[in-house]
Amino acid sequence: MITFKDLKNKRAELKDNRNQYKELILTSINNFIGIYINSLELPAESFQTEGYTHHPYVYVINKNDRWGHSFDNLEIDKVNGATFELYTVVDDEPPLPRPVVTRINVHVMDDKLVYVLLADNQNNNVSVTIDSSDDLNAFSEIVKRSIILKIESEPLGKKTKVDESVKLWD
C-alpha cells in the first residue's frame, strides 16, 4: 500500500534530481566560460573605457542588468535547460566597447549535456554533445568562429535586393 510517506519521499527524490540537474548545467557553463576566456588570450580581464570605467572583455548580463562571469541567477528550465547571451568585446577602442553577442543554450538530452549555438535561423543552430573538457574547447572554437562570421558579415554599403520569388509560368 502506498502511503503519504511514500509520496513525500518520491517528491523529495524529484527535488534532489532537479537540484542536481541545475547544478550540472551551472557548473558546466561556468567551466565553459573559463575555458572560453582563457582561449581568447586576452590582454587583461578588463579594459578602461573613455569614462575610466573598467569593462570586461567577456561577460553575460544577469537579471539585475549587471555584467559578470557568474551565473548564480541564471534561470534553468527543467526541460529546455538554460539559455544565455555571451558578450565578447571585439573592439576595445574608445569611446565605447564593441561587443558581439552569441546566444547559447545548454540542456540535457538522453542523460548527456548538449551545448547549442543558437543562430537567427533555427536550421543553422550548431549542437555539441559534451563528454569532456575537450568538447567544451571545441564548442569554444565554434563560438569564436561564429563571431568571426558575424564580423565579416557586417554590411558595407547597400546591396540590390534579390528577387527570390518562385515564378510558376516561366
Secondary structure elements and their pairing?
Elements: H1 4-39, E1 46-48, E2 54-56, E3 58-61, E4 67-68, E5 82-91, E6 98-109, E7 112-118, E8 126-130, H2 133-152
Antiparallel strand pairs: 1-2, 3-4, 3-5, 5-6, 6-7, 7-8
Helix pairs in contact: 1-2
Attribute tags:
170 residues; alpha+beta; six-stranded antiparallel β-sheet; 2 helices; 27% strand; extended
Question: What does this protein structure show overall?
Answer:
The protein has 170 residues and is of the alpha+beta class. The chain has one domain. 33% of the residues lie in helices and 27% in strands. The protein is built from two helices and eight strands, in the order H-E-E-E-E-E-E-E-E-H. The protein has helices spanning 4-39, 133-152; strands at 46-48, 54-56, 58-61, 67-68, 82-91, 98-109, 112-118, 126-130. The strands form two sheets. A six-stranded antiparallel β-sheet has the order 4-3-5-6-7-8, covered by helices on one side. Strands 1-2 form a two-stranded antiparallel sheet. Strand 5 and strand 6 form a beta hairpin. Helix 1 packs across helix 2 (133-152). The N and C termini lie far apart (74 Å). 11% of the residues are buried. The model has no long low-confidence stretch (mean pLDDT 86).
